[in-house]
User: What shape does this take?
Amino acid sequence: MTRHFLTLNDLSAIEIRSLLDRAIELKRMLAEGEIYEPMRNRALAMIFEKSSTRTRVSFEVAAIHFGGTAIFISPNDSHLGRGEPVADTARVLASMTSAVVMRTHSHERVVDLARHSSVPVINGLSDLFHPCQLLADLLTYLENRDTIEDIKVAWIGDGNNMCHSWANASKLIGFDLAIATPDGYEPQTDIVTDNSGRIILGNDPLEMIKDADLVVTDTWASMGQEEEKQQRMQAFSGFTVDQNMMNQAKDNALFMHCLPAYRGYEVTADVIEGPQSVVFQQAENRLHAQKALLEFLLKENLP
Ligand code: CP
Ligand code: NVA
Assistant: This one.
């Protein structure tokens, strides 16, 4: 059966762990100039129905380093934008390429693509989840600290796709996740419901951030929510991660943001540029984590 990566739950905790170890190894190999080309003569299709800088570049560079090629497909210049069904697109791409990345609005659309694809489909972000980012974030935490198990992560801001993927990670890996959102901007209940009681929700960021080992935030208006921007800016007042808020977390707490960031809104410039911030390490780690993911999925789906 074809393995896909639509949410973090498509991997077991053990697989995630070994994938992160492999990402560290691949990062070392690249730094030392070791040539490794498991994608020679293979192509990666990349459908982007939303903007991207990091996801597009990291997958494209991963394919280049691996000796393969990446093909960028946008709705504007493909038939996806003219109503060709996802199911037909999936079958065509699978007949010529070895894996497909899709960034889209509704999560159902990437599920639909995977359902009809005989090659691995990777969710490059949907309205519900952003699992590739989580692989990079977990990798970044492990590079800076010994373990992520049993730590406390504080999510400050919108209960969005990134928040949902952090909830998945909390359940899979086993760490506490305190989510602070304004009233009405909570994450989807079924995604954060957790029998172990490790995930807690609240509306007071200063309370939820207390004693956190890691503080994470994201934009207050995700792609597709441009029309709500004004309303959201008001609703999220008091949720800016500034140094005073960071001071409520542990002294050695790290700060993460998947980027793009809007300074002065969800985070102040001094925090994102400060010593606790690891945001550019996170961004770089997209490349290494996704290489490990591609290698894993392609191996699982030989030939
Ligand atoms: N963090 C992230 O996914 O960035 P892009 O939107 O630039 O791909
Ligand atoms: N929540 C953001 C993440 C961007 C990488 C969005 O969906 O736009």
Q: What stands out?
A: The CA atoms of residues 63 and 69 lie 5 Å apart. The chain has a mean pLDDT of 97. The first strand starts at residue 43 and ends at 48. Residues 279-300 form the longest helix (22 residues).
